[in-house]
Design goal:
The protein is α+β, with helices and mostly antiparallel strands and 422 residues long. The chain has helices at residues 8-16, 19-27, 129-134, 324-336, 352-358, 362-380, 405-411; strands spanning 49-53, 56-59, 90-98, 102-110, 117-123, 142-146, 156-159, 166-170, 175-177, 179-181, 186-193, 201-218, 228-232, 238-243, 249-257, 261-267, 274-279, 288-295, 304-305, 341-346, 387-391, 414-420.
Length: 422
């Protein structure tokens, strides 16, 4: 297998850097490159940036907040106080207008995972809010002051799965409990990055729907399969992980963000992995995805599988975060079946006209996409001799005339060919 020069640095990681560091280093290749922020921030309550919250609202990437502004609105002499910062360091204030009834959450995503964002969320009172806050007459309804975790890439926020409304300083949960809100209400959110020289942040605001997901996993002969199921969000974060019952049936109850894609990845010891995409905008009134029937094909030589969910950013050999669970399911399968040898086949979404306009060499791009998955698997501990790669350019697009983003994304994929298995 030929690895192009652009990957030489990554190959270096495989042989000269400890395994624990390899995984973290190569995982950076699945996250979209950082974009320099331009969205404004306000360091004082009176200047809070106004955000109208529709079903899906993203703010950022922002310019980095620098300092606490002209006034230190929030201070606390009690270092164990869960309702206030000890002091503001680099703060950003937001005024949130609620547009729907429902369960409300958000994620604060640092542009630099070394940044440590704390937050306080207040219910807005009246035009004297900022003055009352400065006089310590108001308490937040939610807080999270815990230390940033590299495991969660420094992300914090509100989640329906969180148990605590307030999380204090030190090592603790990254998320606090979501809030029931009403249309027309207003909230004040203040963030504080405790470190200097930050890179800014993104905030994903969302409304959450409690959802039931159920179904059955079978083999090609309709016999129930004992399988592991991972439910991940569009950022690659595992929401729930369960095993099916002996009859192949499963039920997952989870709070899911509205109008977003989620991935169900299915795997077992002797069957090939499969993945399905669910979008909460397709939910029926009852709020459930029921009777999902999944067939896990038995592993055999010569089988070729499109796992449906190993896809890439347009024009890049960088995995979409939602693809992480599928790649990790493939890793688990290869780890359990130590004689399994595969070929990773890379594909692109491209046409001759698009190639000329974008100046992209689709053959090289397809090869790099296959190599990205190869490097990920090797970094996790799979022997490189068990994997080969090939790129097909745009010769085997699933949708030659892809007219929407879903079809274009489906074309940006890798497929797995089982070369041998014992």
């Amino acid at each position: 297998m030929y690895i192009r020069p652009i990957f030489s640095a990554l190959i270096f990681l495989l042989f000269f850097i400890p395994a624990s560091a390899q995984k973290n280093s190569i995982k950076k290749n699945i996250i979209k490159p950082v974009i320099r922020g331009t969205a404004k921030t306000a360091c004082d309550c009176k200047d809070a940036v106004k955000i109208s919250l529709n079903k899906i609202t993203t703010y950022g990437p922002t310019v980095p907040p620098v300092g606490f502004g002209s006034v230190q609105e929030i201070t606390s002499k009690n270092k164990f106080d869960k309702s206030a910062f000890e002091e503001e360091h680099n703060s950003a204030w937001y005024s949130l207008d609620i547009k729907y009834d429902g369960e409300f959450g958000f994620e604060i995503i640092p542009q630099d995972t070394a940044d440590d964002y704390d937050f306080l969320l207040y219910k807005y009172t009246d035009s004297n809010f900022c003055e009352a806050l400065q006089k310590k007459h108001l308490k937040p309804i939610r807080s999270n002051l815990s230390r940033a975790s590299q495991q969660t890439r420094g992300i914090t926020g509100l989640s329906s799965d969180a148990k605590n409304e307030f999380v204090g300083k030190g090592i603790g949960e990254a998320y606090s409990k979501s809030v029931e809100v009403k249309k027309g209400e207003k909230y004040i959110l203040v963030l504080d990055n405790v470190y200097e020289g930050g890179k800014g942040h993104i905030i994903n605001f969302n409304y959450i729907k409690q959802v039931e997901i159920s179904g059955t996993v079978l083999n090609e002969d309709s016999i129930p399969v004992k399988a592991e199921i991972s439910l991940t969000d569009n950022k690659g974060t595992v929401v729930k992980q369960i095993n099916t019952e002996n009859d192949g049936k499963y039920t997952i109850n989870a709070g899911l963000k509205e109008n977003l894609d989620y991935t169900l990845a299915f795997s077992s010891d002797s069957s090939f992995v499969q993945a399905k995409t669910l979008n909460t905008k397709n939910l029926k009134q009852a709020g459930a995805f029921n009777d999902i029937r999944t067939i896990l094909p038995k592993l055999k030589k010569g089988m070729k599988v499109n796992m449906n969910c190993i896809n890439f950013f347009g024009g890049l050999a960088i995995l979409l975060p939602a693809s992480i669970s599928s790649v990790e399911a493939l890793y688990k399968l290869m780890k359990k079946n130590k004689q399994m040898v595969i070929r990773i086949e890379g594909h692109v979404n491209g046409s001759t006209r698009a190639k000329v306009e974008a100046k992209i060499d689709y053959q090289i791009l397809s090869e790099k996409r296959a190599e990205t998955v190869f490097l990920y698997l090797v970094s996790m501990g799979i022997e490189k001799e068990r994997i080969s790669t090939i790129g097909y350019g745009g010769k085997k697009m699933l949708y030659p005339d892809a007219s929407d983003e879903a079809k274009q994304s489906a074309n940006r994929r890798v497929e797995i060919n089982v070369v041998s298995i014992k």
